[in-house]
Task: structure prediction
Amino acid sequence: MSWTSHPSGRKARLPRDWSPRRLAVLRRDGYRCRALDSEGRRCKDRANQVDHITRGDDHSLGNLQALCSWHHGRKSSEEGRAAQRARPTQARESERHPGSITA
Ligand SMILES: [Zn+2]
Result:
């Protein structure tokens, strides 16, 4: 999972036929955002983004869904925060010096 530390290389991992694939997903979902709100109602916004349901390199149509830009942005930022949480904290421990009061 070392590729998670290279967010700038994310676009390079998209397949060569990403453009038609993306279009197929938008068409399949009727250009409607597939995100559900907390009550299970479907978002009413127009989808113009294609999202990977499970993060990674699975670009099959089954792992892709249409999302509006708001939901896609929200999901991306949640994934970003999850990646930050998963980062090891050992380096931070060693940065702590005796004079600091953290409690
Ligand atoms: Zn939405």
Q: What stands out?
A: The longest strand covers residues 49-52. The chain has a mean pLDDT of 83.
